[in-house]
Known about the structure:
By secondary structure, the protein is an alpha+beta fold. The protein has 2 domains: 6-216, P-loop containing nucleotide triphosphate hydrolases (Rossmann fold, 3-Layer(aba) Sandwich); 221-342, CATH 2.40.50.100. Helices cover 21% and strands 31% of the residues. It has helices spanning 44-51, 94-102, 108-121, 126-129, 139-151, 169-186, 197-203; strands spanning 6-15, 18-23, 27-28, 33-37, 59-64, 80-83, 157-161, 189-193, 206-211, 214-216, 221-224, 228-229, 237-240, 246-249, 260-263, 269-271, 281-293, 299-305, 308-314, 330-336, 341-342. The strands form 5 sheets. A 6-stranded mixed beta sheet has the order 6-7-8-4-9-10, sandwiched between helices. It is globular.
Amino acid sequence: MSPPLYQTRDLRHFYQGRQVLDLPDLEITQGEVVGLSGPNGSGKSTLLRILALLEAPSQGTLLVDGREGPQAMLRGAGGVTLLLQEPYLLRRSLMSNLAYGLKGRLPRDQVSAKAEQALEWVGLNPREFARRHWYQLSGGETRRAALAVRLALRPRVLLLDEPTAGVDASSADLLHQASLRANREWGCTLVVASHDLAWLTELGGRALTLSNGRLGLAPANQLAGPWGSDGQAPARSRLILADGQMVLGPPLPASQPPVVASLDPSRLRLLASPPPPSPGQNLLKAVIHQLTLEPSGLLLVGLRVGPVGLLARIEAPGGQAASHLRPGQEVWAAFAADDLRWNDSVTA
């Protein structure tokens, strides 16, 4: 029986003396899809860097294919690759970016075909985009182009750090499709860190949550700041979403203001029409884009609130609350300001 692709043994990591990861026994198997959620500072990006073999843990062991240290090398043509939230492209044409990594790996006459295929996977027509330079791409196109550069290598492991942050819904969907296609076609292992729980749910696979560097299994919606005071009495916090909708939260603590609040999916109610306004209640216009029946019998509903993804956990079909839900349906997402909880933060 082959060992897990990744395995941690009492792994801990520190920055300036502060512990940011504590993973005694994490295992990831070859070909698995793993979604990592958690607030800013929970250790998601640090874990991805360690899995990418870019950073060694401060204590404990990371085993790769059952080996550690200098011997922990990912076998396979593409090895492991990490797509950062702010991806970097070489200052040259998009085709040159793709060809750079393929030269020496493929015969010269196959490089263009492989590069064009990767562009098509992420929805960038080679005839239109191959000759474009890095500065001629939008934010969503840049993220998709950077993913194409990595997919062209056919990596054994693809690590994605906040892949949908700041991109439009169409780009987020194309990133989703291309990543899953790599998993299906050559068994690429996917590990994705994101605040976008709805997007992570679409990926399927195993869902993990990091909080203060420790793993849990219960996903929670994350609403990232900046949060400020609403200036009303009683005092509450306020977050303005990218589409202009406002979220009210509990009062900001007197200490350092947090930047991320959590919302339990079971606290979010879905309504067909807006109720009368009520103090301390949030009401957000949303669109259903995913319905997932959990083993518990509850229904996990993926929502889009502008560019923000949220999850609601409700009674499954057959119950009155969920009998008419469908993807594409507009609904109202309701929850109390006091249902939000401030996340503790660490430094990485």
